[in-house]
Amino acid sequence: MRPFAYGRPRTIEEATRVVADDGAMAIAGGTNLLDLMKLQVETPEKLADINRIGFGEIEDTQAGGLSLGALATNTATAVHPRVRADYPVLARAILSGATQQLRNKATNGGNLCQRTRCFYFTNVDQPCNKRDPGSGCGAIDGVAKLHAILGTSEQCIATYPGDMAVALSALDASVDIATANGEKRTVPVREFHCLPGDTPWRENVLEEGEIITAITLPPPVGGTQIYRKVRERSSYAFALVSVAAIVEMEDGLFTRADLAFGGLAHKPWHDPRVGEALIGQPPTSETIDRAADILLADARGFGENDFKIPLARRALHAVLEPAAEGAG
Amino acid sequence: MTAHMKQDKPDRSNRLDAMKQGVLGKAIPRIEGLAKVTGTAPYAAEYAVDGCAEGVLATSTITCGKVLSINKDAVLGMPGVIAVIDDPKLITRAAQGTADEAPQQGPKTVCYWGQPIALVVAETFEQARDAAKHLAVEYREEEGVPLDPQAVEPEEQEDETVRQGDLAHAMAKAAHTVDVTYTTKGHASAAMEPHAAIARWDGDKLTVHASLQMLNYNISELADALNMEEVDIRLISRFVGGGFGSKLGISEEVVAAAIAAKELGRPVRVALSRQQVFQCIMRRSETTQRLRLAAGEDGRLIGFGHYALASNLPGETFVEPVLQSSHFLYGGENRELMLEVARVHRMTAGSVRAPGEAVGMPALESAMDVLAEKVGIDAVELRLRNIPDQNPEEDLPFSSHKLAECLKQGAEAFGWDSGLRKPRHSRDGEWWVGTGMASAARVHNIAEARARVTLKADGTALVETDMTDIGTGTYTILAQLAGEMLGLAPDSILVDLGDTRHPRGPGSGGSWGAASTGSAVYVACKAIREEIADKLGVQETDLDLAHGTAASGEALVDLLDGKDIVREGHYEPGDIEDDYTASGFGAFFAQVRVNRFTGETRVDRMLGAFGFGRVLNHKTARSQCLGGITWSIGVALTEALEFDPRDGHLVNCDLAEYHVPVNRDVPDLEVLLVEERDPAASPIQAKGIGELGMCGGAAAIVNAIYNACGARIFDYPMTPERVLAAMPD
Fold this sequence. Notes:
The complex is a heterodimer.
Chain A: E1 5-7, H1 12-21, E2 25-27, H2 33-38, E3 46-49, E4 58-60, E5 66-69, H3 74-79, H4 81-86, H5 88-95, H6 100-105, H7 108-112, H8 164-170, E6 174-178, E7 184-188, H9 189-192, E8 211-217, E9 224-230, E10 241-250, E11 253-262, H10 272-276, H11 285-296, H12 308-327
Parallel strand pairs in A: 1-3, 2-3
Antiparallel strand pairs in A: 4-5, 5-8, 6-7, 6-8, 9-10, 10-11
Helix pairs in contact in A: 5-8, 11-12
Chain B: E1 2-6, H1 15-18, H2 33-37, E2 53-59, E3 65-71, H3 72-76, E4 81-85, E5 109-110, E6 116-122, H4 125-134, E7 136-141, E8 155-156, E9 162-164, H5 167-173, E10 176-184, E11 196-202, E12 205-210, H6 215-226, E13 233-236, H7 252-264, E14 268-271, H8 274-280, E15 287-295, E16 301-312, E17 334-343, H9 357-375, H10 379-385, H11 403-414, E18 427-428, E19 431-443, E20 449-455, E21 461-464, H12 474-486, E22 493-496, H13 513-536, E23 545-546, E24 549-550, H14 556-560, E25 565-572, H15 576-579, E26 583-595, E27 601-611, H16 618-638, E28 668-673, H17 697-709, H18 720-726
Parallel strand pairs in B: 1-25, 2-14, 12-13, 16-17, 21-22, 27-28
Antiparallel strand pairs in B: 2-6, 3-5, 3-7, 4-6, 8-17, 9-17, 10-15, 11-12, 11-14, 15-16, 18-19, 19-26, 20-21, 20-25, 23-24, 26-27
Helix pairs in contact in B: 9-17, 12-13, 16-17
C-alpha cells in the first residue's frame, strides 16, 4: 500500500471539488477499494472520505417512488419497509450479495461503482487492459470461468460483479449525480455502466469530479418480483448467472416482464426485446425459450465459461415458470 | 526421571477405564476457548516486540528460470525501507510434513510462479509491501516447462504398487464390473490464520514465534536451513489458527525472518498475505483416478483396481497418497493399485487436510455406488458384504474395526431407506431430493512422543510438551488425561504447549497428536502414580485417586509433603505397528437437493458415524467430526484450485474466490461416536480423529446427487455446470 492523503469533505460541493481538482478518489464503505489498495490494484494518492456529506437518507419521492441515498448502507436499504414492500426484487438482490458484515459497511453508491473480480484484474503481476491499458487480457486465454458471454471485446471479458444494480436495472431506476461544477444530472441505471469496448478501464459514465448522490426508484409497479442468483456456494459467492424479474400475468398471459441479468456482461444486462417477446404470450417453455434465444443470440463463450450460455437459459426458465404460477 | 514405554503388544488393560476422576471423555469446553474468542490468545504475528522491523516476501513473476539481478538500490531509497535480503539460505518452498531437514533453498532459482525470491524489510508493513511490489528483477526465463499434469510422462511410485492375482481376468469374468475414471481438483488448506513469524536474536540464540504444527521437526528444518545447532533455537507456537497441513513444515517466512533479524540486529516479523499463503505454501494435488471393481452376482468383490495420478514439483518427495485406505478397505483377491506422479511447475504439492483419503475415498466410494446399482443391492449392504476379515494385501489383522457398526448404526440413525434407490424418486418444487452414503476410512498414525508432568506440592499439576493445539482441543484433552490419571479436576492442571524447550513429540498432523502425545502424558502420569502408590505402600494398579484424594483417605497435598513429583513420559510405538493394520472407520449419510433448472446442489442434512478408539472429549471429538464433514461438503461441491494454463500460477488465491463451505452451505450435521477401545492403536486406546470426518463424505453427497436427479458425475467438485451437463432431460 502506498502512502496517501486522507481528507473528510463535509459537503457534496467540497467532495466534488477535491475529487475534481485534487484528483482524490472518493471512499465510502471501502469494502472494495481498501482490498484493491492492499493489492495495489488501486494506488490513489488522495482519498476523500465522503461518509460525512449526508445523502444517507431513504425518502419517498414526489412521484411516488423512493430515493435511496448514495451513502445509505446496503443493509439499511434492504431492510427498509418500503423497499421490502414495494421493491422486493431489490431487497432480495442486496441480501444475496456479499455477507452481512460487508453489507453493513457497503453503501448504495459504492455498490454501483464496485470493480470486477476478474483474477487477472486483481493480480498486478498479470496482464490486464482494465488495470494497465495495453498490457493485454489475461483472462481471454486464461481462467475465465466467471467471465462475460455478452458484450465482450478483444480487450476485456470481465463481468460486473454486483447484484443490487441488476435489480435496479430491472426496476428501471436512475442514478442521481452531482457534477464538479455544482450541477446535477440523472442517468438511467441501464445506461450507467459501460461495455468494455476499447476502453475497458472505463466502467461507468461518471466523469471526473462526479459523485453519486442517490438512486431513484420509479413508483412501484407490483407484480411478482424475483431475484435468482445461481452460484456454487449459497452465500458469499459471485453470481454465475443472476436474473432480476418483475412479472405480471393476466388471463394466463404475460402483461409485464421486466428482466435484467447479472454475471453475463461488463454491466447488468438489460435487453428490452427479451421482455417484449414475452408480453401477450403464455408462460410456456417455448415462449421462454424464444425469449432466451433473443437474450443469447450474440452470446459467446471463452471455453471455461461456455456453460453460462445454457445456464442463463435455464435460469430464465427457473424464474419465469414459477413466477408465472405465482402471478397467475 | 523418565518413564519409558515401547508398545510392542496390544494393551488390553484399559487402565484409563479403571480411573476414578471421571473426567476423561467428558464434553468439557476448551480450556483456551475464552482467550481465543476474546482476542487475548496471541497468534504468531501478534506478539508485541520492541523495535520489530517488518518483512514482506517478494515473489517471482516468472514460472521457471534464474534471477539474474535484483535492483536493490531503487527500493532502498523508498521511505522506511531497511534492507532487501536474497540470502542463498532463504527457502523457496515450505518443508513437507516430518521432513526434518530444510526444503529447497536458494531464491535465485525459480521453480514456480509466485515463489519467494527475496525479503524486503522496512519500518512498517505497508512500506515493505509497497517496496516488495516495486522490486525490479531481471530474470532468465526457462520456456516451455511442463505445467499440465496430463501432458507429461508420469513416474511410478513403486512402493505403492500392488499386483495380486489377475485383475484383468477378474474384470473379464466377473458378473458385475465397474471401470470408471474420476478427477479431483486441487485444494488449499485455507486455515484462518495466515502464516507469520517473528524472529529475534540474543547473541547466537534465536527465538522464533511462528504458526507451526510440528515443532520437533520444524526446529530441525530451521537449524538445517540456517546451519545452526538446535540447542541455539527456540520455537514458540502456543496458538495456531488452523493448520490443515499447511503448517506441518517450516515455510518461507520463518527462515526469512530469522535471516533478516540476524542481518539487521533487530527483531523482524514476516507475515504472509492471504494471497501468498495460497500461492507459495502448499496445494493438494489434483488427481485422476481410475477405479476398477469386479464383483460376483452377490456383489462380493473378486477384483479391485485403483490407479491414481497426482502431481508435484520436480524434486519433491511427497505424492498425494491417494491409495492409502484403498489397500485395505475392501476385499477382492485380484488387486492392482498404482500411484504415479507428474512433475509440473505448479506450486509445491503437500499435505492438505487428510492427504490421500480426502480425495481417494470419494472416488472409491462413488465407484462403489455405481457397483451397488449394477448389482442391484443396497449401497450399505454392498459395503457390509465386502468388509475383509483382515488386510487383503498383507497377512495382518485389524487392530479394531468399526465399519460394520458405523454403517448399521449410521443407517439406523439417519433413517436410511434402502428402497429409495431409483433416481428422481422425490421432488420438492423445483428441487430433486435424494440420499446417498459412503464409508469412511483413514489410516491411524502414531509416533514417538515425550511429555513432562509435574504433580505440584500444592495439589495442582503442570503438563509440558512441544505439542501444538491447532484448534483441535489439545490443551483440553491433555488436561483431561492428566486429571483422570492423577485424580485432579482439569481446571487445576496447567497445560503448557508449543515451546521447543519442553519435551518433544511429533506435534499435530496426520491426526496423530492426541494418541502420540496423549500416550506420553499417560506414561508420565503412570510413573507419578507409582511414586504415590509407593508412599501409600500399595500397588499402582490398586491406587484410586479422585478429587485430590486417595481412596484410602489421604489427601495428595499431604502425601506430597511439600515436594513436587516430576516425571517425563516417553512413548514409542514399537513393533506393534508391524503387527496390525490400524485405521479409523466410519460411514456417511447425506440428503441433498438438486435444482432441476440450475443444477445447484444444497446439502439438506448429513450424518457421520465414526469409530476411532477411545473418545477423549466428546465435545472436541464431535467438533473435529463436524469440521471434517464440512470439508466433505467443500470437496463435493465447491473447492477447486484453478491454475493458469500458460504460467501455472494459482489464480483463485483468496477466501472470496476459493470456495470453502460457508455457514449457509452446512446444514444440521449429526455425529455418532461409535466408541471403542483399540488396544493396539495406543496405550490410551485412542486413534486419530481429526481427518476421518472428511474421508469419504464427499461421495455420500455425490451419490445423493445421482439419487436425486440421475446425474452421474465423475469430476469433483460437482459444480452447477457439471451437474447440468450430466443431468438427464
